[in-house]
């Protein structure tokens, strides 16, 4: 079950017994676990690129889990964070969610709830990473377009025909057709629908800027 | 100490300022009063003297009208006998001359002005003459000022009055009343009134003066007022100090209460953490083991190790609880049992609760059934139990109207035990709660911790007593505390 590239769960708790038991529990569903006793070491050395989630105890000596959560968000760490606490107050809970916690669970935590939260988090993380990846590729391709091609792309996205675009830009529809062909080639797009879906947002962002 | 001195100085300053103000007020009032009296007297003096001199004109005019006739029958000769101030009266017949040229000059002047004219004014001696030219005879009166003043109607006592009264004519002056001597520029206040007499012929100016030196201010009143202010401030200071003391006491109590609550909260939070950690581990381990065993090919070694870890953590949790108990337990609490007068203990508890009793308008009754007795108890614990039971009763009765509130303490004894019954008229204990009232953290009261009765029962058990709860047949609840008698009844 434990394939080397399976998601990695970072588990931070200062209590050895809690750490090892939760690690064991998490590993029963095939997730890899990296336990951390000290939040400082964790912050310094954990693998930010890994896919997975972070399980963070609120009450730890030296540095509170909520502070660690704030630091993770500051450093733009994108792994979802699940907070664990022995005696959570409403205020603490609100603070955690405000700081971007994905889940807030009370100790002793039931296996179902913890594992489900972890699986949901991991799934979301994978999706967000994929989305980001796709986004990056899209941007790279968009960057290759010339000024005129971007103009044409903008008009295509707003739903104009070649003829209308030609009139708008004061060139012949034929020229537009050439631009259009280049565009499709550069962006590696086959269909108009795909073009609109993938690049409409980027065009908006560009014209807004 | 420094702050205390500072405050004292503030009070002294306040006293000085207030005394000064009141002194000034009294002095000003007195000065105004004196000035009013002075002004009135000056007006009276002016009027009296004016009346006198106007009379002289009238006398001369009358003489002139009666003129001539029998030279031997000179009416003016009788004037000195009638009027004290007229020292002499003279006349000049048609072919006579005045003995002095001054009188002659005055007569010429009088002829010209057609009224009486002064002559030979000698204010040092206090005399002057008044001449009226007439036909056929002219007349002259010699006036002695000393006798002119109508002392009978005089508004002041001439010997003792401090007011100076003079008559001025040019640079000459005649002192009517000496008054209190003073020099211009003396410290104090000076009142002065000047007015010319209301007779054209005798234009003397009446000058009244009164000097009030500092020493004449109403010092006695001013001192009395300063003393009164000092007393009032002392009283005020005492009240302020009492209030401060009281507020400090209240504050201290509140802080104490908060500290106790905070300590309790901290204790609870610490306990929760200490117990939660092993519980978390136990739960995670057992659930992991159960999942491992569910696998098609169970990893028995891993499952067994998880169960062992769970056992270890359960021990850890039990150790935490044990440690807590040992920390909270008071050593040697059972040794403090001694003979205690239960009646006195109840009275003392009622005495301590006096303010609360008054607040809930409740008059407790303490009755003894049978003979007085003593019980075996820990006095401190007993006091705490009674106090708690009474507080509980009062809190229960907050839910019923004032007139329904009654708190009864009934003492009785059996052959072996002393019994205290605390009966209230509150809503009683709900039947389903009757079995739980002594459980820790059980409370029917909103916000109650549920530790009071639990503590009472622990304390009671600790000293060999028994505490029970029941509802009364009509209304309210009854708590019964049974303790062994100090000397069993014969």
Q: What does this entry look like structurally?
A:
The complex is a heterodimer of chains A (209) and B (490). With 209 residues, chain A is an alpha/beta fold. Helices cover 58% and strands 12% of the residues of chain A. Chain A has nine helices and five strands; from the N terminus they run βαβαβαβαβααααα. The two termini of chain A are 48 Å apart. In chain A, helix 6 packs across helix 8, helix 6 crosses helix 9 (192-208) and helix 7 packs across helix 8. Chain A has two domains: 8-134, 3-Layer(aba) Sandwich (Rossmann fold), CATH 3.40.50; 145-208, Arc Repressor Mutant, subunit A (Orthogonal Bundle), CATH 1.10.10.10. Chain B is an alpha+beta fold. Chain B folds into three domains: 1-67 and 75-217, no CATH class; 220-328, Orthogonal Bundle (Helix Hairpins), CATH 1.10.287; 338-484, Histidine kinase-like ATPase, C-terminal domain (Heat Shock Protein 90, 2-Layer Sandwich), CATH 3.30.565. Chain B is 48% helix and 19% strand. Chain B contains ten helices and 15 strands. In chain B, strand 3 (127-132) and strand 4 form a beta hairpin. Chain B starts with a helix and ends in a 6-residue tail after the last strand. Chain A binds chain B through residues 15, 17-18, 20-22, 24-25, 27-29, 59, 84, 86-87, 107-111, and chain B through 269, 272-273, 276-285, 287-288, 291-292, 302, 306, 309-310, 312-313, 316.
Keywords:
heterodimer, A: 209 residues, alpha/beta, Rossmann fold, Arc Repressor Mutant, subunit A, 2 domains, 58% helix, B: 490 residues, alpha+beta, Helix Hairpins, Heat Shock Protein 90, five-stranded mixed β-sheet, DNA binding (chain A), transcription (chain A), Response regulator transcription factor (chain A), transcription regulation (chain A)
